[in-house]
Each structure stands twice: as C-alpha cells, then as structure tokens.
Amino acid sequence: AGTQRARAGAQTSLHVPYGDGEREKLDIYFPAERSGTFPVLVYIHGGYWQCLSKDESGFAALPLVSQGVAVVAVGYDTAPRGHMDAMVLQVRRSLAFLVQQYSGIRGIFLCGHSAGAHLAAMVLSTDWTEYGVVPDIKGAVLVSGVYDLEPILHTYVNDALSMSREVAQRNSPMLCISPAVPAATGCEVLVAVAQHDSPEFRRQSQEYGQALRAAGWSVSLLDLTGVDHFDIIEKLSEESYVLTQV
C-alpha cells in the first residue's frame, strides 16, 4: 500500500532498464523540487534472495522525497533464476547506470533490508575500476542483514540458491571487507538490527559492524527496541520513525 501511495504522490520513472534482463529495472521516485542536484537513497529489497521485488519497495519514498531526496528501488533476478554472483553484479551495475544516467545525483545512500542489506554490503566491497565510474557513496543503512552466507548453506534457504561453499565465501561481505580507502572514509555505515531479530541476525550484524570498523570504516550500530525483522523496515513509511529520521 505504501508503494501505491508513493507512486501516486511522487514524480516517478518506473521500470527504467539498467540492463537487458527481465528484472534489471529501477523504480525512481523524484523529489518535487528537482532543481539542480539531489541526494539519492538506493533501496535494495530483501526476501532471502528469492521473494519480493522492486514493486513492493516504494514504501520509504514519500517521507524522503518530501525532504528533497530521490528514492530508487532496485530490481534484480531472484532465485532460482538469479544466482548469487549474478545478483551482486546486477546491484553493482544498477549503481553504475544511475551515476552515468543522472548527472544531478549528489551523493548516494544505500539502504538494504535482510538479503538486500547483504547485497548493499557487497556493493561496499566493489572494485569500481572495471565499471568506468566511481559512485559517490556517502552512506549505507544496512538493516537486519546477512553478512556471512556459510551458515545458510545447510538450510532450506539454499534450496533455491544452490550455493556452493566457494560461492558463499566469495559473496560474504564479512570475508571481503576492503580497507577503507580515502574515498570510503567519507562513507558512514549504519548497521541496524531489531530487538526481536533472531540471535543469528543480531550476531552477524554486530560482527560485521566491528569488522568494518577495524578496517577503518566509519560505523554506527543501531539496536532498535520493540521491532522485529519485518517492521524494522516497514516503518520507514512513517516520517517520525527513528530510522526514517536518521
């Protein structure tokens, strides 16, 4: 419902292709006052890499576009069609496309939930030299994320993903933290976790946040009381919600 409201209440460009794949599309919610430059929040949806889509991802748009921020919801090929390597690549390519396509962008802020937080974290470890652009990523809000894929290998989640141990290691943000290069020192990372997230989500959030900090990144940990794995992100449709404010 929040997405429908946002599509009705904001200037939008829907289903903008950043590649040839069926799901390689973006929904862009522009701020009403679009004079000159504007910051962009790029939202990457969760769903254990196999459910949901960008079409349910506009719920955070209205409170932000009213503050002059553009919101971009990223589509990617979920499993079983999409494989982990491919999803990571798609999200990286979508950012490169945004930067090349919209010269008005002034700073990119990543936001991902659950599996989307994993993909956003993988963006932070990108070597951009092969993309021909370096997105100016000013911040990342990683919400209830998964940062080590190995524990998933022997669970039902991997039935659709069919990851080998090698694929899981190659795509675990915990295992590919790059030392904070000068450009990254201007990037603030917020690792948010819900009070009622499972112990594994809470543990991974804490360990990933600590590992980033140890590598020289600017990191804050936010432990949100009274929310669970789902409403921690759904409440972004509310202007007064602490995470919306942050």
General description of the model:
The chain has 246 residues and is an alpha/beta fold. It has a single domain, classed as Alpha/Beta hydrolase fold, catalytic domain (Rossmann fold), CATH 3.40.50. The protein is 31% helix and 22% strand. It contains nine helices and eight strands. The chain has helices at 2-9, 61-65, 84-101, 115-124, 157-161, 165-170, 199-214, 231-234, 242-245; strands at 11-17, 25-30, 38-44, 70-74, 105-113, 137-143, 188-194, 218-224. The chain has an eight-stranded mixed beta sheet with strand order 1-2-4-3-5-6-7-8, sandwiched between helices. β1 (11-17) and β2 form a beta hairpin. The model has no long low-confidence stretch (mean pLDDT 94).
Percent range for β-strand residues: 15-25%
* Rg over CA atoms: 17 Å
**Structural class of the helix and strand makeup?**
alpha/beta
Give the helix proportion (percent range).
Answer: 25-40%
CATH topology: Rossmann fold
